[in-house]
Amino acid sequence: MSGRRRVAVTGTSGRVGRAVAGRLAGCHEVIELPRAAWDFADPATVDRISELDFDLLVHPAALTSLELCEDDPDLARRVNAEAPSRLAELCRVRGAGMLHFSTDYVLDGSRPGLLDESAPVGPVSVYGRTKLDGERGVLAQGGCVLRVAWVFGPERPAFPDQVVAKALAGDPISAVADKTSVPCFSTDLAGWVEDLIDRGLPHEVLHACNGGEPVSWLGMAEVVLDEMRARGVLDELPAILPQQLDEVPFFRAPRPRHTAMSPARLAGRIGRAPRPWPEALRAHVGHLLESRLCR
Ligand SMILES: NC(=O)c1ccc[n+]([C@@H]2O[C@H](COP(=O)([O-])OP(=O)(O)OC[C@H]3O[C@@H](n4cnc5c(N)ncnc54)[C@H](OP(=O)(O)O)[C@@H]3O)[C@@H](O)[C@H]2O)c1
């Protein structure tokens, strides 16, 4: 279903919301709904959204800090579970599309290897449990859910940006070696969203990440440093100190260990395979270095 549409996008100060709103602005009329004016901690916000005129709601806004979710489970439930469910109901009643974002952290993390959408769920944190309830609420109303993971991109610094900054500063680099996923480049994600909207949103869960094999944060850091060396920014590769997930001092909330997703179903829906994560990560590092060196 192509053509210019009125698309409301939440969470537009965040990584995913910024990327998607920017991309869709090229082909649709975008109504940005940042938290400053549209806070889902307040249930009345959904009622105010019902007064807006839109054809499609894209909803990446969420309480994404695992630690904040553990500290305030009531807030996490309102923002991550109740708001998306009520927004999806609103969309169904008015005949608008709803595209919601969820997470690989709804999976239990016990199975290494690539997981498709039929993999059993079993969240181990408040964040994961409330996001799963949000998914279920949206699906029950006929919405579409994109599960994303380890998102990186130009909108907001993420793990790869920290590795670049530490390598340039000559600081020690440590990275978790015993937890795996498949990363997602926000710029690519925004393109998949545009394609899904053009083709008509399916009423299902899609694993939305780049292609390629499961990787740890240590493996991602190795690719980042290799790209820096290939571009002549580093003379030699710095050592990376391997860390165990249980050793990271600021991770108070439990995290699932193995949540690598396969984007095969997404590839079928958009008619092309997402490029492998190392290619996307190298492109991001290249852009990052160019923007840092041009400052
Ligand atoms: N980033 C990842 O690696 C990752 C991984 C798995 C799943 N996801 C999912 O992907 C989606 C987008 O995440 P992201 O990477 O864009 O996260 P992010 O960068 O943390 O952005 C979250 C967005 O939600 C907004 N928000 C937070 N609390 C809110 C509230 N009470 N009311 C309204 N808006 C609120 C934030 O606003 P402020 O900026 O004002 O706080 C921000 O715009 C989320 O559903 C998340 O669960 C992300």
Structure description:
With 295 residues, this protein is an alpha/beta fold. It has a domain at 6-156 and 184-213 and 260-275: NAD(P)-binding Rossmann-like Domain (Rossmann fold, 3-Layer(aba) Sandwich). 41% of the residues lie in helices and 14% in strands. The protein has helices spanning 15-24, 44-49, 66-71, 73-94, 126-140, 159-169, 186-199, 217-230, 264-270, 277-293, and strands spanning 6-10, 29-33, 56-59, 97-103, 144-148, 151-152, 173-176, 184-185, 205-207, 240-243. The protein has a six-stranded parallel β-sheet, with helices on both faces. The chain has a two-stranded parallel sheet with strand order 6-8. It has a two-stranded parallel sheet with strand order 7-10. The chain starts with 5 loop residues before the first strand and ends with a helix. The model has no long low-confidence stretch (mean pLDDT 96). Bound molecules: NADP nicotinamide-adenine-dinucleotide phosphate (NAP). NADP nicotinamide-adenine-dinucleotide phosphate is lined by residues 11, 13-17, 35, 38-41, 60-64, 79, 101, 103, 131, 148-151, 156.
Q: What composes the largest sheet?
A: 6 strands, parallel
Shape: globular
CATH architecture of the domain at 6-156 and 184-213 and 260-275: 3-Layer(aba) Sandwich
Any idea of the CATH topology of the domain at 6-156 and 184-213 and 260-275?
Answer: Rossmann fold
Main attributes of the structure:
about 300 residues, Rossmann fold, six-stranded parallel β-sheet, two-stranded parallel sheet, 10 strands, about 15% strand, globular, binds NADP nicotinamide-adenine-dinucleotide phosphate
